[in-house]
Design goal:
435 residues; alpha/beta; Aspartate Aminotransferase, domain 1; Aspartate Aminotransferase, domain 2; 2 domains; seven-stranded mixed beta sheet; four-stranded mixed beta sheet; 15 strands; 38% helix; binds pyridoxal-5'-phosphate
Length: 435
């Protein structure tokens, strides 16, 4: 490991944030350090501290920090004066990305989508998807689900369940119905059947929807993983009632749940898929809505945005597709094995300490009952050099979003730290050790 470069100028102390940064900041509060370097699964602060990253930019860094192949592609491109910004003009970088998307991702999976480059954040891809669904169907209502998270701009926020986030809107968030997600009423209630009943009943009061918007695993809403059967039913319901099925794969996609898409092999094909987070592969802003060609009914510029062509992100995304997805599937084999390791270890902890687990693939967590306990555990992890966050309606789930490229041994070490932190926290709350 090389040391962080010595600063050649004065680095302001942490007080600059109190003085000049908006109080809206959030992650920085639970990790009050100043970071200056990262590679692979490790982050470093400017006091020499090293941290194992089990947050990975909320699944934006599936291939780790500064992956050498992606970094080299970007450095070469910048050094050759490649186009950085070109609105939505044709560029070599864009053509190469579209070509890789077609040959590495779409064709091998028998999928036929057009790529709509939206503004570079996930929420903008969701906005584009629901606008298109409303335009194509001529309907207003979007059906989203309890505990869903889809972004922070008004349209996407209306589809988000969380009351605190919704409260920031300051205006009514409407034209969305929040239906119960898979398992919302416990294992005995088939919520897809309930939705079908309401949509089929002309007197239920539920309007015909433009779209059904769903996450296959709810990233922010508690790592609830829908069953393939439930998702298939939802896809059939959408079709039967003339609504478009939008899968928001912003967090669960790009390998997090094994396939490139989270719905692979489940026997249905979404009409629209949103991607962002790990799409660029290196943490650069980049979002897409993939739309079935017959739905691509926009007028030119009808959904617009200055940063729709982040060419640096095209370059790193292309490098990621070619490096991780364009071979015999060895990356997926590794990710699957790590996901099983993670599952076994979390299950064991859950049994031992009376908790339960959630999630799928490399997107899993442990429900520790309350937000206070979860926060105590994540704080104890941070003090031991492990960056990890919470999820869920009450922030009661400790969620593991390790980079997918993590070595099995390092993953195990991180889970050891998590277990130590759980033990310490429980001992304190049971009064077994003096505080
Ligand atoms: C993060 C996320 C979004 C929003 O993406 P931003 O880039 O933060 O706007 C939307 N949907 C899901 C499922 C997400 O995880």
């Amino acid at each position: 490991m090389t040391l962080a470069p010595k600063p050649t100028h004065r680095i302001p102390d942490i007080g600059i944030y109190e003085r000049r940064e908006s109080v809206v900041r959030s992650y920085a509060r639970s990790m009050p350090r100043q970071f200056n370097k990262a590679e692979g699964v490790w982050m470093h602060d400017n006091q020499g501290g090293r941290y194992l990253d089990f947050l990975a930019g909320c699944s934006t860094l599936n291939y780790g920090h500064n992956h050498p192949v992606l970094k080299q592609a970007l450095v070469d491109y910048i050094s050759a004066d490649g186009i950085a910004h070109g609105l939505d003009l044709h560029t070599d970088a864009k053509a190469e990305f579209l070509d890789a998307l077609e040959s590495v991702i779409l064709k091998p999976r028998g999928l036929d989508y057009r790529a709509m480059f939206t503004g570079p954040t996930g929420t903008n891809a969701v906005e584009a998807a629901i606008k298109l669904a409303r335009k194509v169907t001529g309907r207003e209502l979007v059906i989203a689900f309890t505990n869903g998270f889809h972004g922070m701009t008004l349209g996407a926020l209306a589809c988000t369940g969380n009351a605190t986030k919704r409260g920031g809107a300051g205006v009514p968030l409407n034209h969305v119905a929040h239906e119960p997600y898979d398992g919302y009423y416990g294992p005995g209630v088939d919520t897809a059947a309930l939705l079908e009943q309401r949509l089929a009943d002309p007197s239920s009061g539920l309007d015909a929807p433009a779209a059904i918007l769903v996450e296959t695993v709810q990233g922010e809403g508690g790592l609830n993983a829908a069953s393939p059967e439930w998702l298939r039913s939802i896809a059939e319901i959408a079709k039967r009632h003339g609504a478009l099925l939008i899968v928001d794969d912003i967090q669960a996609g790009c390998g997090r749940t094994n396939g490139f898409f989270s719905f692979e092999g489940m026997g249905f094909t979404p009409d629209i898929v949103t991607l962002a987070k790990s799409l660029s592969g290196m943490g650069l802003p980049f979002a897409l809505a993939l739309v079935r060609p017959e739905l691509d009914q926009w007028a030119p510029g009808e959904h617009n945005g200055t940063f729709r062509g982040n060419n640096h992100a095209f370059v790193t995304a292309t490098a990621a597709l070619n490096h991780f997805w364009n071979d015999d599937g060895s990356f997926q084999v590794d990710v699957q094995r790590r996901g099983q390791l993670l599952e076994r270890r979390l299950e064991k902890m859950a049994r031992e300490y009376g908790f339960s687990t959630r999630g799928r693939g490399m997107m899993r967590g442990i429900n520790v009952g309350t937000g206070e306990t979860a926060e105590a555990i994540t704080t104890a992890c941070f003090n031991r050099g492990l960056i990890i966050e919470t999820s869920g309606a009450h922030d009661e789930i400790v969620k593991v979003l390790a980079p997918l490229v993590i070595d099995d041994a390092v993953l195990t070490r991180g889970l050891d730290i998590l277990e130590e932190a759980i033990r310490e926290t429980l001992a304190i709350s049971y009064g077994l050790v003096a505080e």
